[in-house]
Design goal:
- Its EC number is 3.6.4.13.
- One of its GO terms (molecular function) is 5'-3' DNA helicase activity.
- Pfam families: AAA_12.
- The chain contains 5 helices and 4 strands.
- The chain is an alpha/beta fold.
- It has a single domain, classed as Rossmann fold.
Length: about 140
């Protein structure tokens, strides 16, 4: 969690996921990192109506079919994205979510106004990520 290393207080960071099972997995994993004590992990729906300085959204879905489930619900994703006061980070498999028109446009918006980092399959992420993944155009 890069935010912790640049001085963002853990109590101002929220990690959101649409699925309860992944929320629990993320909570379990964060317990392994003492610096993350105070980071809240919640479902997108349960965090509705609240805000945090930094919001990290895990979109979970990764498949060859481009099936995104209810991540394609633009209203739900709008609620998730707008919970951030200062910074939003979206963790996703761009090759999966780009098949959804709304999510592909969101990725292009982030690429234009923010930054997209691309991790190679099987890679460990972190530093050295490719900064220019190819995103398909949407008509």
């Amino acid at each position: 969690m890069y935010q912790l290393f640049v001085g963002v207080s853990p109590s101002t960071i929220v990690v959101q996921s649409p699925y309860v099972a992944q929320v629990q997995l993320l909570r379990d994993r964060l317990e392994e990192f003492p610096l993350s004590t105070g980071v809240e992990v919640a479902t997108i729906d349960s965090f509705q109506g609240r805000e945090a300085d930094a919001v990290i959204i895990s979109m979970v879905r990764s498949n060859n079919l481009g099936a995104v489930g209810f991540l394609g619900d633009s209203r739900r994703m709008n609620v998730a994205i707008t919970r951030a006061r200062k910074h939003v980070a979206i963790i996703c498999d761009s090759s999966t979510i780009c098949h959804n028109t709304f999510l592909a446009r969101l990725l292009r918006h982030i690429r234009y106004f923010g930054r997209v980092k691309h991790a190679e399959p099987g890679g460990s992420g972190g530093y050295g990520l490719n900064m220019n993944p190819m995103l398909p155009s949407v008509s």
